[in-house]
Amino acid sequence: MKQSSNIILMVHGITDTGNIFNDMASYFEKKGYKIYTIDLIPNLGTADLRDLAQQLKTYIDTQFLPQEKIILLGFSMGGLVTRYYLQRLNGLERIDRYISISAPNNGTNLAYTLPLEGIMQMRPNSEFLQDLNKDIKETLGQIKSLILWTPFDAMIIPANSSLLSIGKEVNIPVLFHKWMLFDQRVYDEIDSFLKGT
Q1: From CA 52, how far away is CA 103, in angstroms rounded?
Q2: What is the pTM of this model?
Q3: What domains lie within the chain, and their CATH numbers?
Q4: Rounded to an integer, what distance in angstroms lies between the CA atom of residue 47 and that of residue 43?
């Protein structure tokens, strides 16, 4: 089956850079996808996630032609940045499919540990999350989505906070948060999702 898009843009989480995706990128490049990553600045939770989403929008608007459709993947904090882009910055028009990996979609209790702007936005029931979660089905529900999470996630507390009740949601029992980016079961789920199987 021919892919409707072969461009994957991967968006990292807190304290990371695009290099966190090196293994995943290599795997999907071998399958014929063109992989792009972005380095969000700053990446320490100090910035408003809406500003990081604007960085993402600028990157997409300048890196890709208007007619090019993109597969957008967000990991952890990058899942919220990508959601804001999709739901509030007209990103749905540019995106073919969406993949969320271990994102604090309903917040994480760990975000109460530091009073930094971006981290506070990741607290359960934050104003930021209330805004994004009020119209999930009307926005994200318009595109094909894959939501991956692990019940053992010690960064997303509770772990099922990653769930969005849209698209295909898959529980992959990986032991650590970042290991989601290196697990073959995750790659297989993404591969199947992109093939439409």
Answers
A1: 15
A2: 0.96
A3: 7-195 (3.40.50.1820)
A4: 8
